[in-house]
């Protein structure tokens, strides 16, 4: 978590240069919003804020010129640079000469907050511009949160509403809504509005108001088929179709989940912990935990049969001009046969 940096921004203890990167888009978005709210007054946005998108014909040279310009009728300027791919190893997207930025970083303007966003998980640490920026800027890496981090983040977001949330409600919220922070933030806002005056968000509030994510519905669908509840699986499938979910998308989610189940089973049998599996597969530990529950019911041979059937179903869906809904429904109906 990047609590320390956020706290400093809220206190207007601002650095002259920020470098933002990482795989958790919500945390990057929130950091940008905090800087916009606290760096300059809203009334100055029209003349002391500028955005330069390098992925859309923006110029790094123009951005630095903006950063060097004195603020107009205010204390500081706020300059955003998006799409700074020259910090990565991707040479295809490296089109901006960095000399002008390197010179600026040697002595950043004290009246400007320059925010550079790199839309990538990693920086190329070998590059001169990366080394120089790390020496002179506040670097914020937005990492994917662990399960425990997400629990703490949910409580923190609820606290922003001057409320609390039961531990059981936290667990139910992550189960139903998943671990996407954008989605969770929306659900928290809705729950806080509903529970206004009660001061505490309860588990029953979450059950009443929070719809299941598509991914969790797919998890339930697999659970129903593996436990012999085919009728409930088909009913859930029809519900998803009524919600305008495409059969091909649902098949992709099913394939991804079974592939994860297969990988988790293999790695668990080799002695890897859930956290180690999550790290090696680069998936959230919560997904590994759910996959492990299914993996315990299936043998490796069963899973191979299911994967072959999924491949056949995928080919049928992509080549058929008929009712694609029926192709996936037939797979769901037959699935218990392949795991016996």
TrEMBL record:
Domain DNA polymerase III delta subunit-like C-terminal: 215-334
Pfam families: DNA_pol3_delta, DNA_pol3_delta_C
Assigned keywords, A-Z: DNA replication, DNA-directed DNA polymerase, Nucleotidyltransferase, Transferase
Catalytic reactions of this protein: DNA(n) + a 2'-deoxyribonucleoside 5'-triphosphate = DNA(n+1) + diphosphate
GO molecular function, one term: DNA-directed DNA polymerase activity
Family: Belongs to the DNA polymerase HolA subunit family.
Record protein name field: DNA polymerase III subunit delta
Source organism of this protein record: Jeotgalibacillus terrae
Recorded name of the encoding gene: holA
């Amino acid at each position: 978590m990047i609590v320390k940096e956020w706290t400093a921004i809220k206190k207007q203890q601002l650095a002259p240069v920020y470098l933002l990167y990482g795989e958790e888009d919500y945390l990057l978005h929130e950091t940008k919003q905090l800087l916009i709210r606290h760096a300059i007054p809203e009334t100055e946005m029209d003349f002391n804020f500028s955005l330069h998108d390098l992925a859309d014909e923006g110029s790094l040279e123009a951005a630095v010129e903006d950063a060097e310009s004195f603020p107009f009728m205010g204390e500081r300027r706020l300059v955003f640079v998006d799409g700074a791919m020259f910090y990565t190893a991707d040479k295809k997207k490296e089109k901006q000469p960095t000399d002008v930025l390197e010179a600026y970083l040697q002595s950043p303007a004290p009246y400007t907050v320059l925010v550079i966003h790199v839309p990538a998980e990693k920086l190329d640490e070998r590059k001169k511009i990366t080394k120089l920026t790390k020496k002179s800027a506040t670097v914020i890496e937005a990492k994917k949160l662990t399960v425990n981090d997400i629990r703490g983040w949910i409580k923190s977001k609820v606290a922003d509403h001057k409320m609390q949330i039961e531990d059981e409600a936290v667990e139910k919220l992550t189960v139903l809504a998943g671990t996407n922070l954008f989605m969770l933030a929306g659900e928290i806002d809705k729950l806080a509005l509903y529970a206004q005056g009660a001061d505490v968000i309860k588990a029953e509030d979450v059950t009443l108001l929070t719809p299941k994510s598509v991914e969790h519905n797919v998890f339930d669908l697999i659970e129903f088929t593996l436990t012999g509840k085919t009728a409930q699986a088909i009913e859930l499938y029809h519900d998803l179709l009524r919600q305008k979910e495409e059969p091909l998308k649902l098949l992709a989610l099913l394939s991804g989940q079974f592939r994860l189940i297969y990988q988790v089973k293999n790695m668990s049998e080799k002695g890897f912990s859930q956290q180690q599996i999550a790290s090696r597969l680069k998936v959230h530990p919560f997904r590994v935990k759910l996959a492990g529950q299914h993996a315990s019911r299936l043998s490796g041979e069963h899973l191979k049969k299911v994967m072959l059937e999924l491949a056949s179903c995928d080919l049928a869906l992509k080549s058929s001009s008929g009712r694609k809904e029926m192709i996936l429904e037939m797979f769901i109906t037959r699935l218990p046969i392949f795991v016996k």
